[in-house]
Write a structure and sequence with these properties.
Number of helices: 13
Shape: globular
Structural class: alpha/beta
Radius of gyration: 20 Å
CATH architecture of the largest domain: Up-down Bundle
Number of strands: 11
Bound molecules: glycine
Oligomer: single chain
Mean pLDDT: 94
Strand content: 15-25%
CATH class of the largest domain: Mainly Alpha
Length: about 375
């Protein structure tokens, strides 16, 4: 008889949303507990796994084996990898797949993948049969610390990213930190930008810890789990007090106003991953904050040094093909920022830093000042 090695006990973080509260279960090997947790949460429910081709190659069999072992009947819907699936066509494929598999209201959708799969499967779960429960099994660092938690689901419109969607909370998140061993170093680094974000926006001690321990997070083990759990705790606390982003939840957009414009300018392509855009965006937000007299210039420099040390791009000039497609043009970047979801009555919202660990929401930064700031960064990246 073979005895499987004991799975280390996971760290469990609760997202406290009253009767919609749920757990984020974090730890190595936790994908093997998927079936038992689904069975305990919804006895007798069937599960439809939504995943993409690449994730399916690595993890689908293991997820299905876990469900089978717990006696959970299951089916699968496999979409193409990448943003191309976060479309009306991708949404139709998943919805029709769920209906075709006779997944009923009391059954469960399991989103097994990165941010694209989580957003797409979550939105289909919000819509099919007017709303079904879903479980997130995030397989990228970015999804484990950000997109799988908090209930933002959706797809892209040809006119912009994430413009169609719904708030629909999962009933469980399983973040298996061992799955991250198979990520490319670049994907891992991009997710790390969102980890650093939690230190910058609300936890100076965590940022200092990251400065000392980031290499251990990349190599796995206890530091990685601690970083994921601390990030999830920070996000869970913000989501619990402002689920629908009427206030504090906007703090999670630190670096995103600049970052989304850069992603749009690079066509949401491999030239710039989301987390890389956020890294550059956070540095720009810190430098703009310093220019406005909010944060000490030395702290803005410290932020840039840390992200660069982690291997992330920190300057506009670090983007592949920087001189092409409006990237080197402050007016073009301003026009892209004006398309952002965070624009309210024509005013751009920026998340600024008063200190490392202290962010503030501002919608009164003069556009002309931002334009001149960007023009300055384009001329002199320092
Ligand atoms: N990713 C930002 C949020 O969940 O609000």
């Amino acid at each position: 008889m073979t005895v499987s090695p004991a799975r280390p006990s996971p760290t469990v973080v609760e997202v406290a949303l009253g009767d919609r509260a749920y757990d984020i279960v974090i730890g190595r090997g936790q994908i093997d507990a998927l079936g038992a947790r689904v069975q305990a949460l919804r006895p007798g429910a069937r599960a439809a796994i939504v995943t993409d081709r690449t994730v399916a190659r690595h993890w689908l069999e293991q997820a299905e084996a876990s469900l089978a072992q717990a006696g959970v009947a299951h089916s699968r819907i496999v979409v193409e990898e990448g943003e191309g699936s976060k479309t009306y066509a991708g949404f139709q494929q998943v919805c029709e797949g769920l209906i075709g598999a006779r997944i009923e209201r009391n059954d469960l959708v399991v989103a097994l993948g990165g941010g694209v799969v989580g957003d797409l499967a979550g939105f289909a779960a919000a819509a099919v049969r007017r709303g079904m429960d879903f479980v997130q099994v995030p397989t990228s660092l970015l999804a484990q610390v950000d997109s799988s938690v908090g209930g933002k689901t959706g797809i892209n419109s040809p006119q912009g990213k994430n413009l169609i969607g719904a708030f629909h909370q999962p009933v469980l998140v399983i973040a298996d930190s061992a799955i991250l061993d198979t990520l490319s170093p670049r994907q891992f680094r991009a997710g790390y930008a969102e980890v650093a974000k939690y230190g910058l926006l609300g936890d100076a001690a965590f940022f200092a810890w990251l400065e000392a321990h980031h290499a251990e997070i990349f190599s796995g083990g206890a530091a990685r789990e601690h970083a994921i759990a601390t990030s999830c705790r920070a996000k869970a606390a913000i989501v619990a007090r402002d689920e629908r982003e009427h206030g504090d939840r906007a703090l999670l957009n630190l670096g995103h106003t600049f970052g989304h414009a850069l992603e749009a300018a690079t066509g949401f392509s491999e030239r710039l991953f989301h987390g890389e855009g956020v890294a550059i965006g956070m540095v720009l937000a810190a430098q703009l904050s310093a220019q406005l007299g909010l944060i000490a210039p030395d702290d803005a420099t410290r932020i840039r040094h840390h992200l660069a040390e982690a291997g992330l791009p920190t300057r506009l000039q670090d983007i592949a093909g920087f001189a092409q497609e409006g990237l080197a043009d402050a007016d073009a970047l301003m026009a892209l920022m004006a398309q952002d979801k965070k624009v309210k009555r024509g005013r751009l919202t920026f998340i600024l830093l008063k200190a490392i660990g202290q962010a503030a929401i501002s919608s009164d930064v003069e556009p002309a000042l931002v334009r001149d700031f960007l023009a300055g960064k384009l001329a002199d990246p320092a």
